[in-house]
Amino acid sequence: MKKADYDVVIIGAGPAGATCGYLLAKGGAKVLLVDFKREVGVPVQCAEFVPLQLSHKFPEFFPKEVIAQEVKDMVHFTPWNKVVNMPSEGFVLHRNVFDRNIAELARKERADLLLRTRFLGFEGERVWLERVDTRERFFLTADFVVGADGPRSRVAKLTGEHTQSFLATAQFTMPLGRDLGDLLIFFRDYIPGGYGWVFPKGKLANVGVGVDPFFKVNVMASLRKFVEEVTAEGLVEKRIVKRTGGWIPAEGVKKPLRERILLVGDAGGFCHPITGGGIANAVLTGSMAAQSLLEGDPQEYEEEALEVFGPTLNRAAQKRKKLMKRWDDLKFIIPRTWIAFDEYWKD
Length: 347
Ligand SMILES: Cc1cc2nc3c(=O)[nH]c(=O)nc-3n(C[C@H](O)[C@H](O)[C@H](O)COP(=O)(O)OP(=O)(O)OC[C@H]3O[C@@H](n4cnc5c(N)ncnc54)[C@H](O)[C@@H]3O)c2cc1C
Fold this sequence. Notes:
By secondary structure, the protein is α/β, with parallel strands linked by helices. It contains 9 helices and 16 strands. It has a single domain (6-346), classed as FAD/NAD(P)-binding domain, CATH 3.50.50.60.
């Protein structure tokens, strides 16, 4: 029988896919990373915070040029004027450099990287791809496929259950009005089903909102109101350096193994349905999938991923349902659905 073109084809070269590709290639597998972007990591669609622990596990992902700022705490501002502090040591990244660095590590281990190439679908053993610039269609064969194609994963959609509820986000990068060493989180009625954030990044800050589309609020209108509030407080200057946004999976984990297809990162719903944090989980699931494939036991990936992430993310998804039902009473529901509050742990 003819050997497949690759041991593993990975769709998506974000942190999940690139980590998986890096570790598989390092373990000796023949790997291809496919992404429709022109440049890995660009455009950035992220507030760019990662917890410190990730850098202990993968120090090679944290050379000094990926770190924009160190942070110590996450400070929460409520509409009832209570301010709650939570230790949250970590980094605000240059996310484009972070993603590029992991993909470069994969390339150094001899993973192939095919950019400007879109995944279209499967046909038996064939993985159909299309060159974005020429629309030329072609196929490759692979023993396994890893779906690392982000929140609106086509790989997940074509193979079974996939995320259907998302948070809609919008973000401006703006100059800071004063020095800031903490991550700031704001709960406001005009940011329904989500929250606003100000994450410092050197002399700049990522200022954004995530809302639940269920409330039919215009995410840009919500962001502009939030920007008015934080500029009035002198936190940031009224100048937009960069704009971005994107979708955050808000449902919890989806079945990670579908015969010879593994889902990692946002594609498998491994993003926190309340906080929206997903970079660390993307790296970790990418790493677990690589390990299981190197050991020839993909079932092990499903078991480990569900054991490690299932309880937390699915519990958060349940809490999210409560949050949505009681958004009319922020003072009641926020403390019960955010880990920074004592009530969260009692509920
Ligand atoms: C505004 C915003 C702010 C956020 N802030 C944070 C934060 O501060 N901290 C945090 O931890 N998380 C944050 N997140 C979530 C975080 O960005 C994601 O969890 C993380 O990017 C998931 O990584 P991934 O590799 O799974 O997917 P992605 O980073 O989305 O990578 C998927 C890749 O797949 C490619 N792709 C998609 N479809 C195809 C296709 N058909 N063919 C070829 N390639 C394809 C894409 O081009 C992309 O490069 C934020 C998200 C948003 C939208």
